[in-house]
């Protein structure tokens, strides 16, 4: 296969506020604005940002649970918007989602075995024997005992329920899993177990992840690359290590400063992000971060900064830190990268494991 597994081009989602009856212009919530990135097979792209910045809307757009206002989502080069029923069905097998709250996304009346084999039974009929064998195999893949297949979700712990959610996502052998705040509701020690599980599954099965979290400390250990979102837009997209070692966008810098520092030898940056996230109904002009940015200049209030490629391959949208006048002739697109940039520059499994207590 040539090209990325997933390519997102200028994805935009506006939610209209009301019907606009007798009004010329309807106000909209600008949930996602002009977002572009790509994900290679077997890669983990993390999306981070404060609550309300559009992360879950991106996930829903990728899964085609909502229709975009603009832009495209391509899987293996095919635009999913153009897929008819049969092709859409086939494509849905390749992309699965794991949610934040496994309890509300698991049918409380079904046993664990029924829950994880249900996606397969939507496509093909299974005998009782096949169903039990599949359930046992999937439970083992996520580190649970096959006997658990007879339990109801209410009889499982939070961590076990999340493993069950992952087993269900694995049932159709997807190429890509979208995990939206998949560990956010769990205790730190259980979070670590689930993250290790995801890393193991990636190594064994070559699954790509779009891993969405508001928690930078989680992202640091699991991502190959990280996209930082602010008020619907990507403001920086970089290799994980590079982003944490040297954030360029002032918002990324502030987020990292605000996150707990797992490594005491690493210096803390300046003060955390101050002020509230502005409303996506009426976002600030120019760079939406300007009311909170210590580096803001006049131009920041006037012009939306474009994503500009930097020497190390990252892209940054900031008039001061990445001025567009210094841009080489190549157009910037978050997610365009040379193959060697995504070819596992570090082993996230090793990185994660070594920070375990
Ligand atoms: N179905 C919807 N209708 C109207 N507004 C929505 C809808 N879903 C999300 N939004 C708004 O879009 C913005 C982004 O939301 P969301 O994608 O859930 O952010 P995040 O996941 O980063 O917290 C928020 O302002 C949210 O209120
Ligand atoms: S463009 Fe201006 S306001 Fe926006 S992050 Fe850069 S310096 Fe701050
Ligand atoms: Mg969300």
From TrEMBL:
<dbReference type="GO" id="GO:0055085">
    <property type="term" value="P:transmembrane transport"/>
</dbReference>
<dbReference type="InterPro" id="IPR017871">
    <property type="entry name" value="ABC_transporter-like_CS"/>
</dbReference>
<dbReference type="GO" id="GO:0015833">
    <property type="term" value="P:peptide transport"/>
</dbReference>
<keyword id="KW-0547">Nucleotide-binding</keyword>
<keyword id="KW-0067">ATP-binding</keyword>
<comment type="similarity">
    <text>Belongs to the ABC transporter superfamily.</text>
</comment>
<dbReference type="GO" id="GO:0005886">
    <property type="term" value="C:plasma membrane"/>
</dbReference>
<keyword id="KW-0813">Transport</keyword>
<dbReference type="GO" id="GO:0005524">
    <property type="term" value="F:ATP binding"/>
</dbReference>
<dbReference type="Pfam" id="PF08352">
    <property type="entry name" value="oligo_HPY"/>
</dbReference>
<dbReference type="InterPro" id="IPR013563">
    <property type="entry name" value="Oligopep_ABC_C"/>
</dbReference>
<dbReference type="InterPro" id="IPR027417">
    <property type="entry name" value="P-loop_NTPase"/>
</dbReference>
<protein>
    <submittedName>
        <fullName>Dipeptide transporter ATP-binding component of ABC superfamily</fullName>
    </submittedName>
</protein>
<dbReference type="InterPro" id="IPR003593">
    <property type="entry name" value="AAA+_ATPase"/>
</dbReference>
<feature type="region of interest" description="Disordered">
    <location>
        <begin position="328"/>
        <end position="357"/>
    </location>
</feature>
<dbReference type="Pfam" id="PF00005">
    <property type="entry name" value="ABC_tran"/>
</dbReference>
<feature type="domain" description="ABC transporter">
    <location>
        <begin position="6"/>
        <end position="256"/>
    </location>
</feature>
<dbReference type="GO" id="GO:0016887">
    <property type="term" value="F:ATP hydrolysis activity"/>
</dbReference>
<dbReference type="InterPro" id="IPR050319">
    <property type="entry name" value="ABC_transp_ATP-bind"/>
</dbReference>
<dbReference type="InterPro" id="IPR003439">
    <property type="entry name" value="ABC_transporter-like_ATP-bd"/>
</dbReference>
